[in-house]
Amino acid sequence: MRKVVLSFVITLVVVIAFAYGGWRSLQSYLDTPLNLTQPRIVMVESGSSFNRVAGRLAADGVMEKPDWFAFFVRINKAGHLLKAGEYELVPGTTPRTLLAQLIAGKIITYNFTIIEGSTFSQLREQLKANEQIKFTLQNQSDAQLMASLGLEGQHPEGMFLADTYQFHRGMSDFDLLKRANALLLSELEKAWQERAKELPYTSAYEALIMASIVEKETALSSERPAIAGVFVQRLHKGMKLQTDPTVIYGMGDRYKGNIRRADLRRPTPYNTYAINGLPPTPIAMVGREAILAALHPEKGEWLYFVAKGDGSHQFSATLAEHNRAVKQYQLKRRSDYRSSPDQ
What is the spatial distance between Cα 298 and Cα 226, in angstroms, rounded to a whole number? Predict the structure, then answer.
């Protein structure tokens, strides 16, 4: 009987020793970095498995003992927790941290920026050129796209908020535009509800048109309320806006870098030297600051402004003051150059 007990104890000790040794080996394996000398991108397709991921890494020489990794997945009952997506494995990643990364779905996030002042045509080209975004709109006209967004009959210009959007590889251009449009409508409605009093707009859309003009007239955040203030004053007084960016937009492909006096006489719906009030649509994408400037313009007597050549503008209350500013800051311009507004 004593021999049986002794044999059992010895066997138990051996089993425990082997188990402990195996456990220590597994822990050492799990905490040993993968064979990475630089970041590596790994795509995990929908419907894939941990075994397939480990096998691919092993075939590429990145992971050793993929069966050990598979065992670790099983004992953690994590086989169903794999998240599809694009992962970046960095030097120092271990099998343990890899499993945590794959379970948490810590996939690569990209940024896409809709540039303030860009046009819808430029935005479509920007989306098309982005390799991480799924391009699906090649066969859709602007009108068809707007209809797909539930905005049938609306002009696309200005209807997507200029902002930075985070996304994962494979997001479609349509889905990104849908987000940008929803955000624009939300921000515009919020700002419209909190707008200043006695503004010359009959709708939030008219405020958006003004915001797009402000966006194109200055890149300086500090100047946007003042620029908006000039145009609001002119609208209140029944003066034409006379703003070059609207003329340029109306010229389309005819614009080659200069506006001539003949262009100012040519009638287009966007020629604010010829029409009264606002143009029919926005002329560019706008950011939050331009929207706020249009709805909270700076109060003052200014009716004119001219570019100073350093990105800022000189503001004037009278035409005489404005003409002096034009001479001061635009002497190097061509003789037929106008500065908007000029009457």
Answer: 5
pLDDT tens readout for residues 182-223: 999 999 999 999 999 999 999 999 999 999 999 999 989 999
Cα angle: 138, vertex 139, 140; to 5 degrees = 95
Instruction: Find tokens 């506006």 and name the residue.
Output: 259
**Mean pLDDT score across all residues of the chain:** 89
Where do the domains of the chain lie, and which CATH numbers do they carry?
22-104 (3.30.1490.480), 110-188 (no CATH), 196-329 (no CATH)
- pLDDT (0 to 100) of residue 307: 85
Do residues 213 and 247 make contact, with C-beta atoms less than 8 angstroms apart? no
Report the C-alpha gap between 102 and 299 in whole angstroms.
55
- Whether pTM > 0.85 for this model: the answer is no
Cβ atoms of 172 and 136 within 8 Å: the answer is yes
Q: Give the C-alpha distances (Å, rounded to integers) separating 14 from 3, 19, 22, 25.
A: 16, 8, 12, 16
